[in-house]
Amino acid sequence: MSSQSIDIEVLGRFIRVNCPDENSSDLYYTANILNQRLEKLKEQTGTYNIEKLIFVTALNVCYELELEKQKSVHCIKHVKSRMLVLNEMIDKALEQE
């Protein structure tokens, strides 16, 4: 797996990062999303302090990620419980034969 150095732009600043060749388009896409979020926050708050914008955005992203993890755990528990019910139904149906 080879990697390359690519430049991404965030808030008008370029940052060089190493990235596996096959992930470069994903990195550009993700950097664009980050840049949009930072620009939106900058407009909403009127803050031009890049460090503060990045810090608040990082906190928001971490919070959103944690919410998604909780949703995933809930979904997995729900699917497992439904599978148990289905297994019981199948077992009962097989016993009646």
Automatic annotation (TrEMBL):
A Pfam family this chain is assigned to: ZapA
BP GO annotations: division septum assembly; FtsZ-dependent cytokinesis; septin ring assembly
Swiss-Prot/TrEMBL keywords: Cell cycle, Cell division, Coiled coil, Cytoplasm, Septation
InterPro entries for the chain: Cell_div_ZapA-like, Cell_div_ZapA-like_sf, Cell_div_ZapA_N
Subcellular localization: Cytoplasm
GO CC terms of this entry: cell division site; cell septum; cytosol
Function of the molecule: Activator of cell division through the inhibition of FtsZ GTPase activity, therefore promoting FtsZ assembly into bundles of protofilaments necessary for the formation of the division Z ring. It is recruited early at mid-cell but it is not essential for cell division.
UniProt similarity note: Belongs to the ZapA family. Type 1 subfamily.
Record's subunit section: Homodimer. Interacts with FtsZ.
Name this protein carries in UniProt: Cell division protein ZapA
Species name: Buchnera aphidicola
